[in-house]
Design brief:
Helix content is 44%, strand content 11%. The chain is α/β, with parallel strands linked by helices and 341 residues long. It has a domain of 237 residues: Rossmann fold. The structure holds thiamine diphosphate.
């Protein structure tokens, strides 16, 4: 087999009017998706401001640009399914239903945080809502996710595990181990690579020999899917297909979702490794912007109506920030609560 040429595929595309209707088929649904994506974006922007004011310390990785994936996941899973994710994880928790106040308080390191203020940005966890972590060590959560899926197979609980990773994770050893066992043991699992084009500042073509990550699926006995994230609706439907394949037939799927992050890798990264033209081309493809276009062009919503929703979301996030500021620091003993020695 000859290696496919290097260089980014999935170039930006305009949506035809048929595509627009297919991606945004129902006003109420698009409105809901718009609001949910906006909640994540405004949460992240609020957190970025708090970070700049010195209220949040440590790492802070923002999900701006990738929100549609989390919103789609929340709609695609069933109660009891498990989501295992990376350190870029606030958006997923919010989409799954974790309240913004405790999420923000976690970033502030406060007692009322999602995990008591001792996990921080990278270790969100909310088991009752399906959020099984927040993992900081790139690629090392893949065997953990395979373990969850193995537990489901063993106990016959009928649940599916969804394991998210970045494109920078796919060369990491434990990814291969976890995927091999998932294929070998027919585990009810879906692996999703959120290909946002960069791992820190390094583009994908400098980290993998074949840029189509799903080319690996066959070797693991997985089904595969690969697409650019355009709308929540399409992303949800394609995820659902993979989830049901895992649930009904216990066949894993490897999905590569082509997306883009508009901010640097973390708050300390000014993202100087990419051209302004590139960023503005991707901005035109931003699923949140596309939902706005659809609401205006297909469903005649006015700027004022959209602005009113935005204002509600902004005040929800302002309240989250106040909640975080007013929350006390964790009790000193909390530092040792979950440590096994
Ligand atoms: C095993 C390991 N190596 C290196 C790091 C440092 N590191 C943190 S994020 C990152 C890049 C990961 O990029 P990607 O998987 O594409 O995810 P993205 O940040 O784009 O969402 C690296 C190398 C780490 N956390 N863990």
């Amino acid at each position: 087999m000859t290696k496919p040429a290097k260089g980014p595929d999935f170039p930006p595309t305009e949506l035809s009017s048929d595509d627009l209707k297919r991606h945004f088929p129902d006003k109420e649904e698009v409105l809901k998706h718009y609001r949910e994506m906006l909640r994540i974006r405004r949460f992240e922007e609020t957190a970025a401001r708090a970070y700049t004011r010195g209220k949040i310390s440590g790492f802070l990785h923002l999900y701006i640009g990738q929100e549609a994936i989390a919103v789609a996941t929340a709609e695609a899973i069933s109660p009891g399914d498990r989501v295992v994710s990376t350190y870029r994880t606030h958006g997923m928790a919010l989409a799954l239903g974790s309240p913004p106040g405790p999420c923000m308080a976690e970033l502030y390191g406060k007692k009322d945080g999602l995990v008591g203020g001792i996990g921080g940005s990278m270790h969100f966890f909310d088991r009752d809502r399906g959020m099984w972590g927040g993992y900081a060590i790139v690629g090392n959560h893949i065997p953990v996710a395979a373990g969850h899926a193995f537990a489901s197979k063993y106990t016959g609980d009928g649940k599916v595990t969804l394991c998210f990773m970045g494109d920078g994770a796919v060369g990491i050893g434990p990814v291969h181990e976890g995927m091999t066992l998932s294929g070998l043991w027919d585990l009810p699992i879906v692996f999703i690579v959120e290909n946002n084009r960069f791992s820190m500042g390094t583009p994908l073509h400098r980290t993998v020999p074949v840029e189509d990550i799903t080319a690996r699926a066959e070797g693991y006995g997985f089904a595969s899917d690969r697409f650019r994230v355009t709308s929540v609706t399409e992303t949800r439907d394609r995820l659902k297909e993979a989830i049901e394949r895992a649930r009904a037939r216990r066949q894993p799927t490897l999905i590569e979702m082509i997306t883009y992050r508009f901010r640097g890798h973390s708050m300390s990264d000014p993202a100087k490794y990419r051209q302004k033209d590139e960023v503005s081309a991707w901005r035109k493809q931003d699923p949140l912007e596309r939902a706005i276009d659809a609401l205006q062009s297909l469903y005649n919503m006015t700027e004022d109506e959209l602005e009113a929703i935005d204002e509600e979301v902004v005040s929800e996030m302002d309240a989250a920030m106040r909640f975080a500021e007013e929350s006390p620091p964790p009790d000193p003993e909390a530092r040792f609560a979950n440590i096994i020695v």
